[in-house]
Amino acid sequence: MKIYLLNETKFEGVENLILNEVKFFDFNVNLEDFDALILTSKNAVKALEKAKIKLDFDLKIYAVGEKTAKKAQQLGFKHIKIPSKAYGKTLFEEFKEELKGQKCLYLRAKNIASNLNEDLRDNAVDLKEIIVYENVFKPCKIALCQPAIFIFTSPLSALNFLKNYHPHPKDKLIALGQSTAKALKGFDYHLAKEPSIKACVDLARLYKNPLQQD
């Protein structure tokens, strides 16, 4: 069975199936007005880079996921914290006490799956949100080799797939996390042991080559 990954990350023996493109928005903000910056994706960091505003590298960064944190570090930020799991909910639970009363800037997508913004406000965080990018559906005409294994890394990737294709009864659908799984409502799906693309790919490889399982 062929493995399709609905993400740009490259893995040997895995075909990338891209059904969206990112549209970045122009914005302007004074980072010195804030105590902390909240980033939930690499695209938010890219948007900040494209905006060409003055960066405050002493600003505290709260990033969801190691790749987002690494991108922020490459940009020059020094004080970066990440939650133990790459979820907005986990970020809130683990850092809510230190964020309480802080003036925070949340650079986000037009559509978000988590309630991180609402949770922060309910926890007395002075939060400003700026929509800095949008994921836009990109139709695809690639003929798929089904049945196959599909890895969905976000709710949007699942929804875009269902706009363009229909799962075969013998397809195996793997979701990165619970929010992505909800977008696959009505279909059987599998979750990896941890919310990372590598863990999903490892699981897909086990389904492809079951004799390799311990």
From TrEMBL:
InterPro entries referenced in this protein's UniProt entry, alphabetically: 4pyrrol_syn_uPrphyn_synt_sf (IPR036108), 4pyrrol_synth_uPrphyn_synth (IPR003754), UROS/Hem4 (IPR039793)
Pfam family, one: HEM4
CDD domains noted in UniProt: HemD (cd06578)
One MF term in the entry's GO annotations: uroporphyrinogen-III synthase activity
Alphabetical UniProt keywords: Lyase, Porphyrin biosynthesis
GO biological process: protoporphyrinogen IX biosynthetic process; uroporphyrinogen III biosynthetic process
Statement: the UniProt record of this protein carries the keyword Lyase: yes
Annotated catalysed reactions: hydroxymethylbilane = uroporphyrinogen III + H2O
Pathway: Porphyrin-containing compound metabolism; protoporphyrin-IX biosynthesis; coproporphyrinogen-III from 5-aminolevulinate: step 3/4
Domain Tetrapyrrole biosynthesis uroporphyrinogen III synthase: 30-201
This enzyme's EC code(s): 4.2.1.75
Function summary: Catalyzes cyclization of the linear tetrapyrrole, hydroxymethylbilane, to the macrocyclic uroporphyrinogen III.
Recorded family membership: Belongs to the uroporphyrinogen-III synthase family.
Protein name: Uroporphyrinogen-III synthase
Organism placement in taxonomy: Bacteria, Pseudomonadati, Campylobacterota, Epsilonproteobacteria, Campylobacterales
